[in-house]
Amino acid sequence: TIAFAAPMLTKWSEDPMGIFGLVLTPTRELALQIAEQFAALGASMNIRIAVVVGGEDMMKQAIQLQNRPH
C-alpha cells in the first residue's frame, strides 16, 4: 500500500499547491489501508485525505470531498 502513497507524497512535497490525486481500488479494505498509509506518511505535511466507498453515508463522504482533499 505504500507503493501508492510514496510517489504521490513525494510529488506533493515538491509543489503542495499543484497536486490532486485519486487512487482507485477494487476493495474497501484496500482503500482504507492505502488511506492509512497516506495519513501516516503525510501527517507532517498536513495532507487532507478522503475515502469514498460504497455502503457508507453519502452525506459524510460528500462533506469530506467538499473539504478539498489532496
TrEMBL record:
Keyword annotations of the record: ATP-binding, Helicase, Hydrolase, Nucleotide-binding, RNA-binding, rRNA processing
Cellular component terms per the entry's GO annotation: cytosol
Record has Phosphoprotein as a keyword: no
One Pfam family from the record: DEAD
GO molecular function: ATP binding; hydrolase activity; RNA binding; RNA helicase activity
GO biological process, one term: rRNA processing
InterPro entries for the chain: DEAD/DEAH_box_helicase_dom (IPR011545), DEAD_box_RNA_helicase (IPR050079), Helicase_ATP-bd (IPR014001), P-loop_NTPase (IPR027417)
Domain (Helicase ATP-binding) ranges: 1-70
PANTHER family xref list: ATP-DEPENDENT RNA HELICASE, ATP-DEPENDENT RNA HELICASE RHLE-RELATED
Name the record gives this protein: Helicase ATP-binding domain-containing protein
Organism for this UniProt entry: Ogataea polymorpha
